Each structure stands twice: as structure tokens, then as C-alpha cells.
Predict the 3D structure of the following.
Amino acid sequence: MASSTTQTSPETAAAAELVKLRKFPHLERLNAMPSDRAREIYARAMNNPHTFLVLNRRYIAAARKHTAPPLSEAGRRVAQDLAANGIAFASFDEFFPPEFFATISDRFSAYLAEFQRTASSGTAKGKGVFLDTIHKAHTFVPSDAVSTYLADPGIAAVAAEYMGMVPRFVGSSFWRTRPATGSDRLYSQLWHRDYNDRMLVKVFLYITDVGEREGYFEFLTGSHESGALGAEFDRIGPDGFRAYPDAAVLEPRVAALPVYRLDEVPVERRSGAAAPWHRTPAVVRAIAPRATLIFADTYGLHRGGFVHEGHRDMVMTTYSTNFNVHKPHFAVTRAFSDTLSPFMRTSFGIA
């Protein structure tokens, strides 16, 4: 019987070709360690500002060689608030055309429908008991709305301004958070620092309205590395990665701080010296409507949403430094790479 072959057009083949991405050196070295004890010793030795600067020297120099896009007024405000507090807030239409939100929201719905169609009916484990990751390992292709949103140079420029270097893109996640069985917080719903770097910029986009019961994001201002509480609760576990702090020690400290609901603070007082949490430790509860952007350095202490009813839909984008120890989860096609500026190619780690 004669065999049949499928012809692929040159355009399709070019779009499917993936470019090589630079590895994260700290992650590679940790993975090469022969035991948990060796990883712990290595991680403790490396967990200092000097090593952080050494591993980032290429990207600090690249910031001078490959100029970041000029910051918008909103971008400048966000970068300044990140430096002061470790967190900043904006509306989607300060960075993108207002109608673009509907496009991203529709894509979220499409990913969700596909996830629900193909999801396993087995018992959920780990964070899966309250969190559905409906789209994660994104492949960047031309003329794609999600690729355009995730690779926005204006957002990357904010991270660059805050970090003082060309940031490294790590990946993105489209999440639906829902109620879990039981009344106790689990995993990322507990106060913690992210394990993978000493400086991060995560951008959270609320796709749905997030009220008091839909799992708002919380952040302890001033707990980023350069903040008043930056040196506290930085604990390395036996596997060599940053471990969750001791709740018995942390929670009384957090309980003594002032608490601010974002929805109760007028927009004009959420930034700069007018913000009640400006340069002072406080707990901020990000109760906010859809199309809200939250920029947070999640080395700072934070906790994810605990949903009482309904659900929270959100898109997260992560920028780190070259010190990162979290495996990146994205791919870039040659065709998309060819559309990027030198700054964005460096950010994506395109060799």
C-alpha cells in the first residue's frame, strides 16, 4: 500500500522552529549536585548579594548595551512603587488598549474550556486541590494575542528599571483558583517567599472581579530584599531551595501590622508617598476588579488566594534575574524571535 505524506509549507515550518534559550547557571549547578546535603551547602554559600551580582553581570551590562523601551508615566510610577514597597498596582488600560483585555479574557475562557474538556477525573494532589493551571508552557508565535501580551516590552521595561538589569523571562501561568475542601490554608496560600530568586517581578492580571471571598492576593510591604523586613525569614531548606518560614514565628509578626484593603484606598492614594503603606511594613489585600494589574517582587512575603466561594481567574507573568533556580516553562519560535528587539531577545535568553 502506498504511503502518504503530509506536506508542510515553508511558513508553517518556520513558525514551528524553536530557538535555543540560555540556561540559568545557578539552576544547572544545583541540579548537578549529588545529594540534598550538597545542594543545601551550595545554596547557603550562594545565597548572598555578592554572588547575586556575579551571576547577573551579563544582564547588568546588557542594560547599558540594549536600551530598554522608554517607560510610560504608569511604568515609571510602578517601578518606583516596586522599589519603595515591593508591590505596585495599575489598571490594564494604562499599559494596553482597553479593548485588548476582552481578547485576553476570551483566550483565558478558551484555555479553560479545553482544560475542562481534557482534565483527568482523578483525585487532585498538592496545589491542585485548589488551583487549576489551565495554560502554562506557552509557545510564542507571531500574530498571537497571548504572545503579544506576555512579551510586552513596556512590562519588561518596568522589571528592568526595578532590577537594574535586563530581566529574564521565566514563563507564565493561566490560573483558576477555587475553594478547597477544608478550612485550612495550604501550600502557597501560606505566607512565604518565592524560592527561586532574590529579586523577582511577577505581574498578576485579574481576569475576574476579586472580592473579599474570591481569593485576593496579599503582600507584606517592605519585605522585598531592599525593604525594612527584607533580611528576615530568608530560610534555606535541606533541598537547597528557600523554604517556607516558621508560621509560629512569622504569623504573630504579621498580625501586629496594619492591614489595608486595596478597594478601600482611593486610586490616587495607591502610589508614592500618598500610599498608607509607603516605605513601611503593612499587609495589603489586593481586593480589586477585573483588569487590575498587580506587580510584586515575590521574594517579598506574600500568600496566594484562599477562595471561600466562586473562583478567581488570573494570568501570571514572571521575570527573574539570572540567579533564578526555577525551570523556565516557555518556548520561542524563530519567527517570533525575529520580531523582537535586542532588549527583548536578551530578556528571553535567546542565544
